[in-house]
Amino acid sequence: MTRWLGIVALVAVVAGLVMSFGVAPRELTQGNVQRIMYVHVPAVWVAYLAFFVVLGASVAYLWSREPGADRAAHAAAEVGVVFLGVNIATGAIWGKPTWGTWWTWDARLTSVAVVFVIFIGYLLVRRMTDDPERGARFAAVVGIVGALNVPLVHFSVYWWRTLHQPPTFMKPGPSAAPASIRAALLVNFAALLLLGAYFIAKRYTLLRAEQEAAA
Amino acid sequence: MTADHWGFVAAAYIVAALALGGYWRRLVHMEKNLKTPTLRSARRRSGAR
Questions:
Q1: ipTM (interface pTM)
Q2: How many domains are contained in chain A?
Q3: 8 Å CB contact of B12 and A40
Q4: Residues A175-199, mean pLDDT to the nearest whole number
């Protein structure tokens, strides 16, 4: 099952690349550098979703002490960190030619960096104690705090003056972007979502196998 | 006409591919390690010290 999910994700990633470079038009204002959006934006959406999985699984773990919930949270947090890392790195690369800087401490970039650091902390806090159950409990609390910061990242562009543009897609009302750009973004989102789901499923299986081997 | 900055586009996609591909390789490596029992885990299973 996981293997098939991986194969479907790979096909979807290839389709996403075709949409990004073959179907989506050259953007009028920014030129071809805008094509970075097709990896930058879906990566953060997948990271957001992964962190919401962390939130749900962490609450479930604290409620039930079910090891499966902790494994789901752990796997989703790790994958969320990878996708958020991709988002931050591609954003910096996009920022240099369009804003003239790799990084600036504006509200969106700072808030996203804070979430990134919190989830790195989430992964580290598990290793800080010899008792895995205790580490899982600490991590669940950090995971909940980190996930609750995600809306702050999204709304930061409305609540503060930022260099980062407001959302073009995840906002009320129709998007101003042409249909071909929306389609390319949607296909790439589906591709990265499938890839993220594959990574989480595989990591979950490995965590279970690690725990069984250690028992 | 706006400059296209293809170098930045390539850099962004290469960085994304390296990060996602690198994570996938890490998972494959972990899976391989779990399938190949180490001396330590074999000793643990047999109860030897």
A1: 0.90
A2: 1
A3: yes
A4: 92
- Partner-chain contact A31 B4, CB within 8 Å: yes
Q: What is the pLDDT of residues A16-70, one digit of tens each?
A: 999 999 999 998 888 999 999 999 999 999 999 999 999 999 999 999 999 999 9
CA–CA separation, A23 and A68 (whole Å)? 42
**Which contiguous run of DSSP H or E holds residue A115?**
helix A107-125
Residue entry with tokens 């499966």: A68
Nearest one of A173, A165, A211 to A40, comparing CA atoms: A165
Q: Do A97 and B3 touch (CB under 8 A)?
A: yes
CA pair distance B49, B44, nearest whole angstrom: 7
The residue range of the domain holding A148 is 2-166+175-214
Band (pLDDT 50/70/90 cuts) for residue B38 is low
Q: Which CATH number do you get for residue A56?
A: 1.20.120
pTM of the model: 0.91
> Do residues A120 and A78 lie in contact, with contact meaning Cβ atoms separated by under 8 Å?
no
